[in-house]
Here is the input.
Amino acid sequence: MKVQGIVQGVGFRWHVKNCADQLGITGSVWNCHDRTVELIAFSETEEDLDALAEMIKRGPGRVSSLTETRSEGRPPTEFEIGLSR
Here is the structure.
């Protein structure tokens, strides 16, 4: 997912991690140089991924758009906060 808006410098990555942990979702989240935030999330159910998208929209800052790209891959064992990419 790519998240645009006021999402850096407001604790947004920590909010995403907390939401993911609540839902049992693994993956990672990081700041991008263009002031957006990107995240990769893995879950057994589409419903949990949809719930994550809705939860992070209500977080700190202000989400102006959220672009989702769905794909499959090997999931990590936890959700991590990464550095800028």
